[in-house]
Design brief:
- This protein is an alpha+beta fold.
- Helices cover 30% and strands 38% of the residues.
- It is built from 3 helices and 8 strands.
- Strands 1-2-3-4 form a 4-stranded antiparallel sheet, covered by helices on one side. A 4-stranded antiparallel sheet has the order 5-6-7-8, with helices on one face.
- Strand 6 and strand 7 form a beta hairpin.
Length: 181
């Protein structure tokens, strides 16, 4: 009598192996595509920063640049924070146009005469102590220098608050109610 040891061994059908392999391959391709897409989007946001910084150094009193950010509203702005030769802090708002030439409109402000980012956050914390801070960014709307303050209130509304850099007064506010939880 011969005993078959392989009789109880279960085998996976080949079509399941192929299906599993195809699903893994598709997920791998989608992950790689997602990473490449994310990197391209991030690079597109900052691709003209060096050109903007060169324009600011050439056309304004700013001689050293601390940081460069962007604001997308009705118009696109690159915002450059820097210092003059006299070590005065300034903010330059460079309006970007579609044809990428050097004729961008530049608005500069002495940041020492304006409410700083730290001071606007302090004013906001005094006003809304139970809120959850998300971010603060410089903004320009209708040629007015503003702080764009983003946070969640106690009722879980997502709020974008535009506060004047001159005196901290509210310019406009957007409140979004969370629809899905």
């Amino acid at each position: 009598m011969q005993i078959n040891y392989y009789k109880n061994k279960r085998t996976i059908p080949s079509w399941i192996k192929w299906l599993f392999s195809i699903v893994v391959l598709i997920l791998l391709i989608l992950a790689i595509y997602g990473i490449i897409l994310y990197k391209n989007i991030q690079e597109a946001k900052t691709k003209d920063y060096s050109q903007t910084e060169k324009i600011v150094l050439d056309k304004t009193d700013i001689v050293t640049i601390d940081k460069t950010t962007h604001y997308y509203g009705e118009k696109v702005y690159h915002i450059v924070f820097g210092h003059t030769a006299d070590d005065v802090k300034e903010i330059a708002f460079v309006e970007k146009n579609d044809n990428n030439d050097d004729n961008e409109h530049i608005e500069t402000f002495d940041s020492e005469e304006m409410i700083s980012e730290e001071n606007i956050l302090s004013l906001w914390r005094d006003e809304c102590s139970s809120c959850k801070f998300v971010k603060v960014n410089a903004a320009m709307i209708d040629k007015k220098a503003l702080w764009e303050l983003t946070y969640e209130d106690a009722d879980q509304h997502y709020i974008i608050d535009y506060l004047s850099m001159d005196d901290g007064s509210r310019y406009e506010q957007y409140r979004f109610k969370r629809t899905f939880k």
